[in-house]
Recover the amino acids of this structure.
């Protein structure tokens, strides 16, 4: 009797999980693809020829191409310093790195406006030097760099702590230089964690909306990224264009998940070997 009750509870819980996932994930995702392709392939691909659409894709890629390498260098340096040295206030520093996880992207964008805007702290200096950050590409890059700051560092720190410094110290005693130690010892050990962090950084950089919306002004053809294009097209009742852009972003997300799964499998296989 008890076994049959347990089996019934298990089936109910599984059903609730499936229903929950269907409501918040599967049905909305399927609906996006249906709306994008319901008039056929020709209208869908016709949206890719629009200048504002192409500009949004180009701007999104430019921001990702700048932000990902910058945060990769920062993440590697921060992870190496935290994992290999006894730094005073280590927990506090890690909390600072994690700050973008807990702050709303809109608030992050507002902070940048209050710093670099025309009436911000650095506003007079920027006006004097004729440098424009807010409502321009530099502000969008800074906002994206802020929200993607923790991914590489938080992916590499556990790997560095797990491998320990023994191999690097052994290489140093054998006369290897610092760059040789990094290239031939450290980097091979952290490569999967680093790639995992890079994938997450790239996915967030391409899909960021809140912080970029605040600092960009969402100017069509100038400061409009792909997520901003989706919102603007939908508000202007250009639903076909909005769903086409959403499908493109969704495909990028799926590719990211596939790469993440491959990296996790490779890491698992490596750990079991």
């Amino acid at each position: 009797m008890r076994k049959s009750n347990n089996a019934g509870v298990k089936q109910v819980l599984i059903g609730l999980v499936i229903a929950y996932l269907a409501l918040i994930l599967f049905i909305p995702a399927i609906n996006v693809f249906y709306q994008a392709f319901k008039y056929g392939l020709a209208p869908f691909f016709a949206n890719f020829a629009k200048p504002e659409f192409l500009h949004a894709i180009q701007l999104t890629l430019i921001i990702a191409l700048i932000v990902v390498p910058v945060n990769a260098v920062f993440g590697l340096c921060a992870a190496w310093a935290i994992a290999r040295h006894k730094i005073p206030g280590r927990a506090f520093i890690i909390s600072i790195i994690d700050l973008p996880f807990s702050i709303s992207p809109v608030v992050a964008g507002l902070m940048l406006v209050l710093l670099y805007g025309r009436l911000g702290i650095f506003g007079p200096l920027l006006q004097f030097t004729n440098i424009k950050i807010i409502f321009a590409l530099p502000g969008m890059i800074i906002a994206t760099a802020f929200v993607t700051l923790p991914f590489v560092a938080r992916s590499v720190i556990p790997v560095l702590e797990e491998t320990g410094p023994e191999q690097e110290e052994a290489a140093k005693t054998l006369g290897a230089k610092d760059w040789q130690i990094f290239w031939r010892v450290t980097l091979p050990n952290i490569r999967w964690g680093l790639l995992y962090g890079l994938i997450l950084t790239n996915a967030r950089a391409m899909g960021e909306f809140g912080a970029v919306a605040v600092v960009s002004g969402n100017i069509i053809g100038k400061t409009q990224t792909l997520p901003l294009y989706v919102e603007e097209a939908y508000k202007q009742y250009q639903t076909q264009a909005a769903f086409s852009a959403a499908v493109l972003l969704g495909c990028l997300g799926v590719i990211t998940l596939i790469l993440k799964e491959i990296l996790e499998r490779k890491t698992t296989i490596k750990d079991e070997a």
About this structure: Residues 2-37 form the longest helix (36 residues). The radius of gyration is 23 Å. The chain has a mean pLDDT of 88. The CA atoms of residues 1 and 123 lie 73 Å apart.
